[in-house]
Amino acid sequence: MKTLKITIAFLLLFTASHAQAMDVVELKQSNSNKVVFKVRFMNGAVADSADKKGLTFATASLMAQGGAGGISYADIQDKMKPWAAGYSVAVDKQVTTFTFQVPVDFVDEFYPLVKNALLTPDFSEKDFSRVMKSQQNYVDQVVRASSDEDYSKFALEDQLFRGGNMQSLLQGTSASVKTIGLDDIKAHYKSTFTRNNISLGIAGNYSEDLLKQFKADMAKISAAEYTPVAPSKARQADGIEVEIIAKDSAFGSAIFTGAPLALTRADDEFAALMIANSWMGEHRKSYSRLYQKIRQTRSMNYGDYSYIEWYSNGGRHQLPPSGVPRTSNYWSIWIRPVQIATQLQSQYPELADIEIGHAHFALRLAIREFDLLIKSGLTQADFEATRTFLRSYSKLYAQSPAQQLGWLMDSKFYGRHDYLTELDALLKNTTLEQVNIALRKHWQTDNMFVTIITDISEAPALAYSLINNSPSPMSYSNLVKSGLPAEVLAEDEEVAVYQLNVKTVNVIKSANTFQ
Amino acid sequence: MKIVTKTLVMGLMLLLLGNSYATSKDTAGKILPYPIYQQKLANGLNVVTVPVDSPGLVSFHIVTRVGARNEVEPGVTGFAHFFEHMMFRGTDKYPKEKYSAALKSTGAAANANATQDRTAYHMTGNAAKLELMFELESDRFLNLNYSEHEFKTEAGAVKGEYTKNFASPYSQINEKRSETAFTTHTYSHTTMGYFKDIVDMPNQFEYSKVFFDRYYRPEFNTLLVVGDVTAKQVNALAEKYFGKWQPGSYKSVVPVEPKQQETRFVHLQNGTIPAYFSMSFKGPAFSDTKIDMPALDVLASIVYSNTSELYKKLVIDEQKVRFISGGAGDSRDPGLFTIHVSMMEKDDMPYVMTEIKKAIAKVKAEDVDAKILATTKSNLKYSFAMGIDTPGAIAQSLSHYIQLTGDPESINRLYALYDKVTVENIRMVANKYFKMEQLTVATISEDEKGALK
Fold this sequence. Notes:
The complex is a heterodimer.
Chain A lengths: L5 H6 L2 E4 L5 E6 L5 E8 L13 H10 L8 H8 L5 E6 L4 E8 L3 H13 L5 H21 L2 H13 L13 H6 L2 H11 L5 E7 L3 H11 L21 E8 L4 E10 L7 H13 L7 H8 L7 E4 L21 E11 L1 H7 L11 H18 L3 H14 L7 H13 L5 H11 L2 H11 L5 E8 L3 H9 L10 H4 L4 H11 L5 E8 L6
Chain B lengths: L1 H16 L1 E2 L16 E4 L5 E6 L5 E8 L14 H8 L9 H11 L2 E6 L4 E8 L3 H14 L4 H19 L2 H13 L13 H6 L4 H11 L5 E7 L3 H12 L21 E6 L6 E7 L9 H13 L4 H9 L3 E8 L7 E8 L5 H17 L4 H18 L3 H15 L4 H11 L2 H11 L5 E7 L8
Parallel strand pairs in B: 3-7, 8-12
Antiparallel strand pairs in B: 1-2, 2-3, 4-6, 4-7, 5-6, 9-11, 9-12, 10-11
């Protein structure tokens, strides 16, 4: 019987060294046709000062999308074109990660570009102007108009971390981006992209000489003393605090809700909570509880999931990406857009008299499912099935060389050596009792933040319904209602009046967010 | 007589064993560095295996060559995509709950998606679970069975998907662009379909049975397995689980789009995102034997990519444009070559469109630089090689070409054609396809009317 050996296969080949006080993850793969370099700095958006939010993002963007080593941005693109090589940067709250990839045939010609981008970025006025216009566009318009789902997630973080350094969008705010000057970027580069907070990764078919050169070059980056800024902790909500963000032309209600979580991957107990979370709301999986209750049985939306750590770009990714490690954590529920009253009224004559759409009911249903789980715990059968699933599924997280390198570098962030291998052992040894202890210890639904992006027509009635804990009977079309089993309709009646500890509901105009 | 008998026996053997064809173990000179093994079962189902050194890992895809393109009847736009959802609703052997539990037990990353030309079902996971994957897939492809209530219920999830997509003005303009550029062909609607048809989906239960009966047949499907497997193993599993699948008789006839005679315009009034416009020219259908599509791909990279003169002028130097890109989407029937432009300021749209037209006039009239042509060909080849670093990525790439021609070897033929593209070919396709009377311009801005003429 074959078993999944990917992790083991690359484990044998990777080593970590601490030469020149830099963490280096080496993942030699002699049969690979490429070389991947990763350079990570422990800064991220929390390194931005309060009045310059978006500065780390701007600095990193200018390094990755500007001239370097006296070679213009356009010329760099021209040089890389025949090789199909490239590089990009990902900024998150606590880290900034550059990734460079090149076919092994051209690695020697490509490498100077790696060095230039990190050590001698040009920071020209012209590149600065282009990059900042794009960043300003994003915070002024794009973030509110691209995906209501991502918007609701960013808005939830804005609530959870309000007043702290984790609050802001990575790109900053409309006001802060305007204040960022080229001198700010040059100073930020010197002070926060340093040899004291750098870590390196290299994967693929590279030579020992190249590795040596890479380490030696990266040690030449700024020697400034830098102490990573501690991220602010998620706030404890007072009851359920809801913010409804009203848009002019939303088609549905996009919902995110969350509360602080004391665990991260650094804690062994995280594995136990991972089993409970996977059963409840594994990302994009049709067999988890929330999905089955809200989408599959009731036809309310496209999907419903829960999380115990930040999950980047959930609408696009099927598997969790690397590069977003965080020590300040929260758990959350994602309810994808549900119908609003005006849409339902226009679609079904039998719903002509409804006053609100499905958001209140969906929120009640999701929170009730958490309450039921907290009360009764996972069953032995569900525990076994979910643990077995996760032990196989987590081996799919790191398939490509870049993914493998990313997960190994994230491991070190959490003080681990190889998290995915360690996770498998933790899952293997986790018991049902530990899972049920963990979920009761770390999950509660009395105090949460909720963000709902919805249409301006829906907001007032939804706000009224939430703050008054008004009954919110599910408004099915006759087509669906006629075939629903009696037990679903009976459960609906309980859900419709399920008491949520809502203490605050504020309605905010979309234009006033992230200002 | 002896000869006749021998021929007959051999014919029977072929019928029993299936028709092994086009299997190529020699990868010399081919873009895909792995051999592609193909075996056609007696029922017409093509089985493709690509062994790759990926210990314990396998990616299993079923490509159903049915998409929005096949939605020829009125009132059923979006049905191929909706049907993809229904395929997760269970069978007699694996009712919904049992199917969910079995799927979970594979520990795989499994999902499906639909496009204008195909529907694809995929699982990537533990190679030791391959037989279970085959069993689950064969059961639903051969024996799908759902109640009318489940059918009606799933329609709500599709509406939810449309609802989430609708938040993006780009989704909205995409719908408008399609229905403006095409008047007759089914590419006039998006894969999601029209909202009115989505709202009406719960009423189409009977049609869903017809749809399954027509298309979920061996001749419309290809099995593809990439990873830690052998062709022998996959062919045996295919025979065991899909050998009894009965072929159908339905022939899909898609209406032909008449020749466009004048530039068309469509506008979306929306001031929530930076102003945007697109220019879509009628392009060719995908072909792995004609030079047109490969030449257009090379042209797209030279004229519209981030190393193009246009990009350098409009994005880097003048900074009037946030991004520009252009290219022809591969499609089974003639589709669109679309140039997308996101603006810094809406008032610059006419100027930017003029610059794009100048670039088009230039590529029609002048030869592209031979060095840039060579650079671009190199980029295409290395981009592909860099992208195929997991079994899932390889399978996804092959799946793309299977949907277009039914034959994964198209990938090798296409890249061989890229090598043959000449400066003359590029001028030829520029003149053949960049015709203003076959252009559709779509705009988004805060203004009531589009600013481009």
